[in-house]
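Title: [Solved] C1q domain-containing protein 3D structure

Original question kept below for reference.
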Amino acid sequence: MKCAPFKCLQNKYRILQSSCLKLYFKKLSHIDFIYSLKGNDVAFNAHGLYVFSKYVKSFQTVIYKTTNAYNASTGHFTAPVDGIYFFTVQICSQYNHGLFFYLEKGYADMDGATRLKAANQYSSNDAACTSSSTSVKLNRNEHVWVLMDRIYTGSTIYKQDPYAWNTFTGTFIKELS
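Solution (posted by the thread starter after getting help):
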């Protein structure tokens, strides 16, 4: 059965329009997915206690990370894209002890590092924790790490328990072009 020329053309237009819309929405979904991968999916949360020879603190137990930007074996976060990032570190000291730590940025070799934040903790009555946070502009492949002012032992740094953790967290805020 043949259709009238105008009706056939109208049906073909509807089919083509439907196919184009499906293709358009597939492309939108793909773009959204790529933006999500490049966007807010850079985050980590780690805790633990290990200080390297250059006084860099590594948080060995990774609770959450969306990319390989945080390396627990070096204690370094490496920026995957140019952008604004936000970091927080918390370190706890035993009673009658103090400690000093810094958030720094630079490159893997740590030469020419820039100090972003400095913090200290001293408690005479009980173990206590202090935290320090900062936002920072990073270029792709720049690193951020926690630096102690010297090697501290377990008698100075409060070891993990269910109520107090030494932590390092970071997240991507905004990409810069």
